[in-house]
Amino acid sequence: MATNRTFTMIKPEAVAAGNTGKILDMIIEAGFKIKALKLTTLSKERAGEFYEVHKERPFYGELVDYMSSGPVVAAILEKDNAVADFRALIGATDPAEAADGTIRKAFAKSKAENAVHGSDSDENAEIEGKFHFAANEIV
Ligand code: RTP
Ligand code: MG
Fold this sequence. Notes:
alpha+beta; Alpha-Beta Plaits; 4-stranded antiparallel sheet; 7 helices; 4 strands; 40% helix; 17% strand; globular; binds ribavirin triphosphate; binds magnesium ion
């Protein structure tokens, strides 16, 4: 995957609340092109693997339970400076600290249930995209 791509998931509580369309609209309006998209449910095992980097953190068990609690929408997005620009669009992890106009400010319920994931580096964007999508599912 090129370095102008990032990976996102719309997290279970945001999908369940019916916010998928509004969140995708904000992403597209911000200039990102959708290169892959799917509705899927993560098993506990897959959610644990996805967030393995946080294995030693106190919230890991809660995070795995949450991310496997219902369908998520996974997507690969393309834009110049995709990783950093998408992190800016989603806002701070804790919605109480997220800036106005960000997706988390608009839709996150709490620091844990915070509506969206965004890759934190080009390297992780590629790993995470490949974790969710086969080559023939990416345009
Ligand atoms: P993400 O990876 O999902 O884009 O979120 P992030 O970079 O902003 O935050 P990160 O530190 O990577 O944490 C991953 C996710 O774990 C949950 N979390 N809960 N209860 C807590 O204190 C806590 N801290 C983090 C959130 O769902 C966070 O997005
Ligand atoms: Mg993170």
